[in-house]
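HOLO CASE FILE
Compound: adenosine-5'-triphosphate
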Amino acid sequence: MLEFADVGYAWPDGKTLFSGLNFRIEAGEKAVLLGPNGAGKSTLLRLANGLLAPASGTISWQGQALTAEILRQRDFSRAFRQANVLLFQHPEAMLFNASVRDEIAYGPKQLGLADIDARVARWAGELKLDGLLDEAPFALSGGQKQKLALACLLALDPQFLALDEPSASLDPRTVGWLIDTLLDSGRTLLISTHNLSLAAELGERALILDEHGQLIYDGPLATALHDLDLLQAAGLAHRHRHRHGGTAHAHLHAHDWESS
Ligand SMILES: Nc1ncnc2c1ncn2[C@@H]1O[C@H](COP(=O)(O)OP(=O)(O)OP(=O)(O)O)[C@@H](O)[C@H]1O
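Model generated. C-alpha cells follow.
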C-alpha cells in the first residue's frame, strides 16, 4: 500500500534527515512509529501524506510513485486525499471553517463524496461533538480540536490513517474510543506516539527511529516492548537511580510500560 524506498529528506535550510529509509506498509497493517524528540516522526508522516517531497528515493502509494506531477493530477489527487489522511500533532493547522458542522463537511464536499449530512452526524456523534456543531472551531479546547480534526478525517472514510501523537491531548475516554474504533475498522494505521500503553494496544508492528532518524527496528511490537536497550535508543526508556535502604543502584525503566 505504502512504500518508502531509499528515502532521504532535506529541509529548505539544507539540514538533511533520513538516509536510505526503507519500509513497506501493507493494507490492514497497524504500525506504530516510535523515536525520541526530533527523530523525524512528524516528517516521516508528512512524507507519507504527500505534504513533503523526498530529496532522494521514492515514496509509492498503491504502487504509484508520489511525484509532484502525479499529485497535481486532479483524479489521482482526489483519490489520494480521500484514502490517505494525516492527523497533525497540532490540529489548529487543519481547522479554518466557521463552525464544527462546516469543518466536518468540508473535506467530503471538496472531494465530491455523497451523504455529507450523514457523515457529519455520524462522526460528530461518535466523537461526542454533536453538542458543539454550531460552535466555531477556534473556540474549542485543545482536546476538542483534536477530536474535531479526527472527525474531519474519519468523515472521508480513509483507507490509510496516519496519526501524529494522537494521545497527547485526548482524554483517556477518547483514547479508549479511538483504540476500539481503529482496531475494529480494518483501516491501515501508522501512529506516532511516545505512549507505550497506546502503542501496545494499537500496533502489531513497530518502526523505531533513533535520534539521527535512522530506522533501527522494524518488526513485531511485542518484541520491541520487551527490549529495554531498544526502548532507550527510542527515547522511551530511561535510566534512573533507586535507593533501597543504604544502597543505590541504577536501571532502565520504560515510561509507562514495564518490561517483564
Ligand atoms: N521547518 C523545519 N526546518 C528545518 N528543520 C526542521 C523543520 N521542522 C523540523 N525540523 C527538524 O527535523 C527534525 C525532525 O523533526 P520532527 O518534527 O519530524 O521530529 P519528531 O520525531 O516528530 O519529534 P517530536 O517527538 O519532538 O514531535 C528535527 O531535527 C527538527 O529540528
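CASE NOTES: The chain has one domain: 2-254. The domain at 2-254 is CATH 3.40.50.300 (Rossmann fold).
CLOSED: yes
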